[in-house]
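DM from R.C. (forwarded with permission)

"hey, sorry to bug you on a friday — could you get me a structure for this? deadline for the figure draft is monday and I only need the backbone to look sensible"
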Amino acid sequence: MPGRCTVGHSTNLVGLPTDLIASCAYNDHPVPLRISGVREMNRSLFEMLSQAPDLPDAGIAFASYMMAMFGLDPEQQEPRREGQGRVPKRYRSSFLRLIKGWGYDSNSPEGAVLKGWVESRFGIFPTFHKRIIDRETGTGWTTYVEEKMSSRFHNNSIYTQLDLVYEFCQWALATMVAPGATHVPLYRGVNDFAEHQIVEKIDRRTAVVRMNSLASFTTDRTIADCFGDIILTTEVPLPKITFFNTLLAGNPLKFEGEYLVIGGDYRVTASYL
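My reply, with the result:
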């Protein structure tokens, strides 16, 4: 579309062209995506996961591994007492903190870091962050870059944490949640198309829509109703799911059936309340 940014970078870390990953053709015929080197460098994690009898036990194994790797255990998150005073805690960036921030507001600084991770690993540019991002020199792009690069969130290998979350999510989908499946039907409620580029109108209710680089969907249509009068329904390929509500116990997205989905062009059906 004239005046809008391109889909993304010419390179990424998953070994397929970005334009293909972001296309309806990929959504129709998905193939697995692997972030380069993640599984190879973390073989012990996937050996632990292979011994888990169910998803809750796998989640415990994953959480334990992340605690050991990135110092996310509670003792390192709270101030320590020494004598009569309190020693300020050392803040450690955590993927759970980012997901919590996203749950409150996808246009928060935490949301910018998550969108930046998608851009870095899958090559897909965001189309919206607080405002439409229509060109790399615009205000929207500048705000996004400033927030995604904030040192507040980059002091604990945060992109590496998110790489592991994605690979764990893909392992869980393939082995325990939806073995043999290629897609899952998901819903998104919107009030208008301000944040979504309509790439092609197929008929009165069907269109190809360019989703943001990372977008929230839900498995529950009644929940989608709470977020807008227009309900977008689409079949999301499993490799484009980065996180889902039952992946980890106690996560902040647990009660809305929420899925975090890599963006690009999606064929959607729109229905109205």
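R.C.: lifesaver. The first strand starts at residue 80 and ends at 82.
me: no worries. Residues 158-177 form the longest helix (20 residues).
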